[in-house]
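Let's practice the habit of predicting before peeking. Look at the sequence and jot down your guess about where helices and strands might fall. Then scroll down.
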Amino acid sequence: MIQEYTTYLRSIRGYAENTAVSYEKDLRDFVSWVRGNVPGATWSTLTRDDIDRYIITLASAGLKPATTNRRLAAISGLYNFMRREGYEVENPCRYESRRKRAKTIPNTIPASELRAAYDHAVGATKVMLGILITTGIRIQELLDITWEDIDFEDMSIKITGKGNKQRRVYTQAPQLETLRLLKEQQAVSGRIFTIDQRTARTMIWESLKPFSSARQLSPHAIRHTFATQLATQGVNVTTLAKILGHDRIATTQTYIDMTQSDTRSVMTNNNIIN
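Done guessing? Here is the structure:
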């Protein structure tokens, strides 16, 4: 059943491979716990009390609330999947069992350090940095961009995000120029970057390390920096959620206070590296 569910996440829901693998691992860890603590249990006989005992076990082992909640989400998602597939099961996971997460400040990289890294970067690394810094997209979204997704006239890029949901983001003239040059060199269609996520992360990290002392030097830290800068400019929560591809406004609220702004004008005026 776990294999069927994770296949569904990949093929139907469009989950990233890393996310699907994490869910599968979480579910198999849960099954291992059940076998050792609830002998003879099946998916249809597990109860809320069993889930609460599992949560206590995870907390005692020192797992952070975010990790525990991810595991609960995986279990709950599996039950919802089984119900949709016609299995007579009740979902024992309840929202009130979720552990409260401490509020954290997103990891960011000072704009001056991002600018220095960008100025010294070359080739594909410079192109990747430029797009990440000016659009705030996720690393996998970056790697999934094809030449057909770019509208050079509109200065926009079609992004395919989580769950295969599409949105359009806007970049700036210098980034488009580097993309044009890269396209002339490649002269092919399809994906712009033909590398895997691990390689891309390494390239980004190596480009940032000489110029930054930030605690985390990752594509997602660049995304946090982008969102935080727009929040400082007073961008409203709805606009930023649209730019970042967030499904839940609460996720975006971490960054900003409510105000009004326009998606295109906000993104084309972002000036970290221009």
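How did you do? The CA atoms of residues 105 and 179 lie 33 Å apart.
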